Amino acid sequence: MEKVVVVGIDISKDAIHACVKESVGDAVSRIRGTRKFLNSYIGFTELQFWVSKRARGADSVWYVMEATGSYYENLAYFLHENRLQVSVVLANKIKYYAKSQHLKTQTDKVDASLIADFGLSQKPSLWQPLSCAYKQLHDLCRERICLKQARSRAKCQLDAMRNSHDKLACILRIKEEQIALYEKLLP
């Protein structure tokens, strides 16, 4: 029978919570270990070494993580560059999977275990990095969205300031200059 190991990863800005689960054939999965790592290159190499020790004899090892902002990207690229199987899943898929499992507890450790279960049961597709051109386009679009949101926020603040009592002219001017800068940056 095939022995499959899935590493569920809950990732944040500073930390990676990993849960290694194995499944042999159709048997119930069992936890082979859980651990927290730094979200840095050193943490990535420690994770890879730790998983290799827990996945001895496995026919396949698969890393599954949710797309959490941009925090997952460095780890996903690291694992892919090391020729490891990686799946990146939208956060709402994990959320609805958790609801289907009637899971109410939410900690990083529990989330990592849940993501590993999701990987074993749902077998998400493998992640492929974006081409350089698409990555640049993605980054530019993300920045454009942030600038549009900042411009909208500044316009609302300026409107509120103009309708407030006795606002300093210099503060209004600063806000107007911010909006002018956003207008210049956004064609």
TrEMBL record:
<protein>
    <recommendedName>
        <fullName>Transposase IS110-like N-terminal domain-containing protein</fullName>
    </recommendedName>
</protein>
<dbReference type="InterPro" id="IPR047650">
    <property type="entry name" value="Transpos_IS110"/>
</dbReference>
<dbReference type="GO" id="GO:0003677">
    <property type="term" value="F:DNA binding"/>
</dbReference>
<dbReference type="GO" id="GO:0004803">
    <property type="term" value="F:transposase activity"/>
</dbReference>
<dbReference type="InterPro" id="IPR002525">
    <property type="entry name" value="Transp_IS110-like_N"/>
</dbReference>
<dbReference type="GO" id="GO:0006313">
    <property type="term" value="P:DNA transposition"/>
</dbReference>
<feature type="domain" description="Transposase IS110-like N-terminal">
    <location>
        <begin position="7"/>
        <end position="160"/>
    </location>
</feature>
<dbReference type="Pfam" id="PF01548">
    <property type="entry name" value="DEDD_Tnp_IS110"/>
</dbReference>
